[in-house]
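All the exercises in this workshop are built on plain-text protein records. The record below serves as our worked example for the rest of this section.
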Amino acid sequence: MAGSTLASPSVEAPPLARAPASPGRETWRRFRRHRLALASVAVLAVLVGGVLFGGLIWPLAIDDIDFSAQLQGPSWAHPFGTDDLGQDLLARMIYGGRISLAVGFAAMAVASLIGVVVGALAGMSRRMLDPALMWLTDLFLSLPQLPLLLLVIYLFRDSLKAVFGVQGGVFLMIVAVIGGLRWMPVARLVRAQFLTLREKEFVEAARSQGATTGHLVRRHILPNALGPVIVAASIEVSAAIIAESTLSFLGLGFPPDIPTWGRLLFDAKDHLDVAPHWALFPGGAIFLTVLSINFIGDGLRDALDPRRVF
């Protein structure tokens, strides 16, 4: 009909494309799907927060002796009980936890740094450096760690105490020894990653544009190899905490007046029949710390693995 207008069909606008998530946000999305790892983060946060700030809530001194309260079980006055001198175990665990966790993370940093340097040098070398470094790595892997730890402690403990003091010298010695004997798995892992990544197309493209070896390592290879290294580092924290606890349990770690969790277990071993709480609480703290760090490592492994589909 003349004068009439035909209504044009409505055209829906295409949906907006979803912006790709950033690598950090994608890693967090993958990580939080691992329920045990997420719960372990909460447990570890409680433990770390407790040893860092617990002294503000429970300000008892670690060396207050009360013979009238010897070997008492948990109570309102002493939530974790007391030891054979009547000292409060909660205050001693808060103080000792700082040292145990500090040793674990510091030894992990030493082991990771040495492992990354050795693995990167071996992975980028095309000549005799690679087999020489791997021979050195295999040599350290074949050494019995506990006897070597004991030997180094006996040889250098007194000299380090004289230079850095009792607590500082023992701390540096334990961190250096544990970290110096735990870098080999990280080195082998980094070397394998470098051998794979240095042949990738993006590395060849950067090399063809004149990038130096140092630039390739810093900007292209090392950032792509950090995922497995982070996972391995989380495992090294657990191994370092257990190693420090073992040395303290053997009486070769910190002095008796410094109550690390391992030292508390060593002091409690002769009173297990009358005061099991003395060993239960520090042993439980070590168990929860190591277990939570291992689960966090599992979650990081899944989150940082690009081949896994969630």
In short: The CA atoms of residues 81 and 127 lie 61 Å apart. Residues 1-8 have pLDDT under 50 and may be disordered.
